[in-house]
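FAQ: What does a multi-protein file look like?

Like this. Sequence, then tokens, then the next protein.
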Amino acid sequence: MTSKLLAVFVGPGGMALVGNLRNFMTSLESISTLGFQNGIVKYVAETDNDSSQLQKIMATVFISLLLVAIGLSGILFFFATYWNNQIFGAHFDYSFVFKALALALPWYAVSLFFVAVINGLGRFRKVIWVTILGNTIGLLVSFIFVWNYRTLGALLAIVVSPALLFLVSFYFVNKEIRFLNTIRVRYFDFKILKNLSSYSLMALVSSVFGPLVLLTIRKKVIAMVGIDQAGYWETMTRISSYYMLFVSTILAVYFLPKLSGAKNNGETKIIFWSYYKSILPLFIVGLTFIYALRFFIVELLFTKEFLPVASMFFWQLIGDVLKVAFLILGYQFFAKKLTVAFIISELASLAVLYFLSVYLISFLGIQGVLIAQVLDNLVYLSVLVVYFRKSLF
């Protein structure tokens, strides 16, 4: 619904700007939460029955995140023009968006913390409710803002909507824990920050550098082949994110806990192959139908103006199959806290993606970016298969 709204009111060019801001927001989200989200889920789950340790975790993480978010807000607010030029370019003036983001960021960061706590407590239904209510609020805010302010409204909706999630997440977390009585400076414990640091490093590398590389590539696309082409790529990326959510949710909720609990290579092998025998084939069948219906999907979710996106499906879907094939292996980095190996492989993959994209754009236009993604995913999958060969074979 949001995609249709954006398609009608902002067009391909506006969609490209929205993509730039979304990439920036993803990086900012990870920095503002210090990349602690997976770690919070793990440690809250482990200390659910230890109220004293749970208090320490809650107080330590909350105070840390709030201080970081306030600091980032100051940087965003007072240097709004600088961020506008970096994200959108000097010929666009959306500095006000970054000032609005500065005011919204602390609320957003705290809401992400609340959701991680609820998840860690095993209240999965409540996580689903938070997600549903958050998406509903986001849709209403997007409709009002986009209807009245077009592209500016779309950008404002992206930064304001997540902050409103605070009200929903606080309600649910406060029903589980007396939150206001838990947050005390005396409970602050640096040991907890040290324990979370490995999760922080892995999350920050993927969630900060990944979106920044995509942002840089999109700016290259705008400069080399035009803002509309960048908008079509962003549109294809949004379609991909819809069906990829199916796999990422199953991995996070079902397979990651199982991998974390696996005691040896034999148990890990069973988990890997259960994924390859069930999820991967189902995903491929689903993508086959999506490819057959690509023209219908584009018109349904967007408008006829976006029909050039249909030509991007083939390479995007090939790349996504390869991505789904290596995702389960990538989760093993988190399950076993293989921090150094993860950082090296992730940075190398991003470097390959960037240089291949820049090189292929000059020859193949926007299709070059999609082919670069396929080649990068193929290389990454090959590397992970070799690295985890003992657990696979």
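And here is the next protein:
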Amino acid sequence: MMHKVVITGMGCVSGLGKGVEANWSALQDGASAIRPIQREGLGGIASWIAAEDSGPVHLASADLRALGKLDPLSLHAIEAASEAVEQSGLRGHPVLHHRTAVLMGCGSGGNATIDTAYERLFAKGQAKVHPQTIPASMIAAPAAQIAMLLKVHGPTFTLSSACASSAHALGEAMHMIRSGRVDVAIAGGAEACLSQGSWTAWRSLGVLAPDACRPFSIERKGMVLGEGAAVMVLESQDHAVARGATVIAELAGYGASSDAAHMTAPDVDGIAMAIRAAHADAGVEVNVPALISSHGTGTQLNDPAEAAAMRAVYGTALDRHDVIATKSAHGHMIGAAGAMEFLLGIRCLVHGIAPPILNHLGTSADCALPLVLSRQIIDHEVLVSNSFAFGGLNAVLIGRKA
């Protein structure tokens, strides 16, 4: 028996704000979190732009102290997970102890903690670092600390596939519920990459824009880093109905593929394979009108490859769809990007609104798509959310209205 998987809780934090409502309000109003960053340790260089987080977490200090030293990576994850579980009505529910999994996607571990340790060692010549440097910086920390906070005793682990990490986490969590292995999964992703070391490495790669994120646009110059977290509570429909939960939407399909081609250059065939697999898994024909939440990084290589893959999959039906690109507002949240974009896409379906792609200067000839360039009313029943990562690691999620 394959169990239908539904969403009963959502939580997020990004440069757009704290919580789902703040992020949704800013997104549909066309607000942007991308701005010059002024953060201690980054030198206050105005030309460094990013979408940094929006302040300290709003959790009881007693709860946090019990979890040990917390990197910003874990703080983002805990805040988003707490909001999602509160909305689902599951805090304190017996299912958390026995039939719940925690799956988090992260592109990297605790960058701020690692930077602090290296500063002590190499800049200050100190012989020791903080004794909790390893547990605080490990990539598994957010998942473990969410489980500790919520007293979850089921399968708990981290998936790391660069920019597709949290999309993979949601998809694999869906399969765990479908198969009956668990009844509930707390799944999503987190990233905190705006430390000096991480920032410098990304800048050295030559993919960061100096001004703005312009998905599918002429004069696009690269991606803009963001940070934060997005987490969902997934349940089998039977479990949700039995306890009287409010169902937000359905996670209906998931497709994954590997380009097996290049570490940084996307492959059209690999991307198309993941999109087709997601449609087949969800039982949704490609000609059914959908809202497509694109990966849309604003880089020279990614955008035309994604556009070509969509044209290959959807063909003449492409114009029935609407394409959004929310990285233009919240930045590229790396490991958290897939979950954040799927969460916001679900909000679009529920409210019947598609937010505008920001900073657009005209569509590039190799990126011809039915782009949403101004806020518009939609009536789609289906969401397709694309995530394509370095290493050619692809994940596509399909959501459906409840």
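Q: Is there any per-entry metadata?
A: Some entries carry free-text notes. For the entry above: The mean pLDDT is 94.
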